[in-house]
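dumping the sequnces here before i forget
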Amino acid sequence: MMEFLLERANYWVVIVLMMIGLYITFASQNLIKRMVGLGLFQTTICLFYVTLGKVSGGTAPILFGPDAVEHHAAPHGPEAETTHAALDAAFAAGGEPAGRFAELANTYSNPLPHVLMLTAIVVGVATLSVGLALVVRIREAYGTIEGDEINEIDLETALAQHAEAEKAASEAAA
Amino acid sequence: MIDAILNAAPAWALTHAAPLLVMVPLFLAPMLALVPSGRIAWLIAVIATAVSFCFSLVLLGLVQTSPIGVVSYEIGRWPVPIGIEFRVDALNAMILLLVTVIGLLASVFSWPTVVAEIPKPKRALFYSAFLVCFAGLNGVAITGDAFNLFVFLEISSISTYVLVALGAGRDRRALPAAFNYLIMGTIGASFYIVGIGFLYAATGTLNMGDIASRLPELAGHRSVQAGFAFILVGLGLKAAMWPLHQWLPNAYSYSPSFVTMFLSATATKVALYALIRFLFTVFRPDFAFELSAFTGILMPLGIAAMLICSFQAVFQTDVRRILAYSSVAQVGYMILGVSLGTTEGLSAGLFHLLNHAMMKGALFMAVAGVVLTYQGTTIRDFAGLGRSAPWTMTAFAIAGLSLIGVPLTAGFQSKLQLGFALFDQGLWWAVGLLVFSSILAVIYIGRVLEAVFFQPPVNPRKTRKEAPVLLLVPLWILALANIYFGIAADVPFNLARDAAAAAFGVEAFR
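..and the predicted 3d for all of it:
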């Protein structure tokens, strides 16, 4: 039981944080707090992806020692393609280098989720800035950033407009 | 016509059509932000969308002439499962054509409404945001990489929030509407990305075709099923699937009228395309959990949408809100077609998707014309417009009849196909509900048409009558398309049928 819980410690943290973020986003009336909840929710996704990429016992995905490939003249164009083709051929043949490549996957953590999360962080920052800009504009237009107060103001305005329209219609009829 | 374009296009356009379709508007967008004049920005936006439209025609031609029905482009020449791939088959090609046609018509008609609704210094920036949104929607439709789809989804969504919020110049309620849209949209995209995380954990790849080829042996895997659930909810939120549509009525009612028209015809359609791509190509309709999702979730939700939202539309007083609720109801029709899990059902759903873009585009354009000349969107403001603005209102009536599904209009053809598909599965009661929902449409469109043609105008002092020509031309193109494709439905129906076949053919996609 204990083992089951501890093995998945990261995932428990992810689930708890994600639910907290989602709850704040939905339950809070304050618009800034809703943005905070949203930020927590998005950050937790990064935690989730980084957890996915971790290889137990693996190190940071920076090639070192014999694994580091020397790029002497940084070949480009057709030359680089022949190198790629050679690597692919080695993979397909499954010889000595292929064995080494298979091992690499256990030595180093998977870098791809990290890269994906880099993009997701950028998206999150953009969303946050647009959201905060909207909050500023809402504050200017309504004088409040509480969701329920905004709804009340909207309702009052709509009722006033409706009454005005009714009045105009009855005047026109008369 | 497509042959002529293929022959006329230079070689580079044929090879690089897929990335250029997205890149041209995406690169022009930041330049527009630097342009001082709104009018030049508008011209550049029209040119950019026209270029994208040409590329989408080229892509459609390439897909139709290709022996395997697929155009694949490796970004940066990275081989496919590792690098990002733009992959176009009959399904994408149809959606790309839809988005670019609507984008072109929308940007042509936009200038008078933008002059009326957007403050002068913001006009160039407005077009910049529009082009980003346009490029993002095309990117969602064209990419074959699951994570890349998320990035494009967010590119289009974030610019959409900005566009919706710009309605604040006319009505400040646009701001809370945009904020709620932002919250809901971000949660939807986040759910999608969590689902992709689960799929990546199970399959170790992000290329859609690659995921599809590895999934059948993992179908019983818990993380695949969790990923499916997350993706369904996330994309359902973006596609305004009932009951995840709460952001839509406010966002459509208060945004600038040009934005409403563009979004209603494209944004939810593209999200629905992504959902269809995942339901039919990445996951397979023969997975047990997906079948139960079809019958247990999608079908009831689709039916609930078309009944409840049609019913809600009947009681609205604002024409834009009527049309917004009707949009959710129409998404319900499409979801119902999709949920049958058959080729007929899917092609009927896609057919309705095309037709709905045509009729909602025309309806919202007509409303934009009324907003422009009369500054009001309640039914009361529409009273008597049939006499003072006959061209605008006749187009509105044609599109409205098409929305109801009157014979000889496009809406009738797609509802007919949906009915056939339902009968094939023995779901005659669903056909009954379809007809009932159409009767509700008669009521809510009828209320507007009654005010337009049979009531005296409220305020006869207003002298300006017809909407400007720039607005009438695209409006009538869409309205006549509703009639033309209602009589000769072959072209869109074949597009939809090919698209449905492509969605099913995992071999064709991979």
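Chain B is about 80% helix and 0% strand.
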